[in-house]
Here is the input.
Amino acid sequence: MDLSPSDATTRRRRGLLIVLSSPSGAGKTTISRMLLDADDEIAMSVSATTRPMRPGEHEGKDYHFVDDEVFDQMIRDGEFVEWANVFGYRYGTPKSPVKDALREGRDILFDIDWQGARQLEPDFGEHLVTIFLLPPSMSELEHRLRARGTDSGEVIADRMRRAADEISHWAEYEYVLINDEMDECLDKVRAIIASERSKRVRQTNLVPFVRGLIGPEH
Ligand code: 5GP
Here is the structure.
């Protein structure tokens, strides 16, 4: 097949499905936001949930907020790539943005829990990059939760119990980072993404590119 020089020099790649999990308060939201702001090849997956909207959240941006009936229908219609019960509410990842991103060679970032990461593995394992963020200590985690100033003592105690539960799944992830210092942690996440994108199997235009460099006989 003849490729014009512009085709041969185009660098194309397969998209990544980047799962970032952590207990609440370990810095996942901040790191996700910073990643997205600086890299327009990554889009955030917006989940559907039956959890009520919290102050400051927006429909379609933080979640698609739906009732139980709609969630049931979405399950029946096969609209989720995964869904799970997380502490009393249901959360699910819509299928079509994932399919679109993979077809177009773009990346998607998922803020989902260990149950979601586990369910993506069988169908999307070759595209998956799983990263778990640990807090430097439980007292620092509690300090960060209190510093938000949004939750009562009871809610914080509950979040600490949930955090221990989420952390207990750390060993199911490929990459585990201790989020001691935010900028350092963000750099590490970026380095992981850069190296995952550079894997030979993910670069789909290398053969014509290299032929353009050294000729077709090699
Ligand atoms: P929150 O209610 O605090 O926004 O989220 C609670 C937990 O649900 C977080 O650990 C978050 O990662 C997880 N979560 C959010 N969306 C999904 C989803 O679509 N699937 C799964 N499995 N977990 C999710």
User: Anything to note?
Assistant: The two ends are 16 Å apart (CA to CA). The beta strands are 17-21, 42-44, 48-49, 64-65, 80-86, 89-94, 107-110, 128-134, 175-178. Residues 182-198 form the longest helix (17 residues).
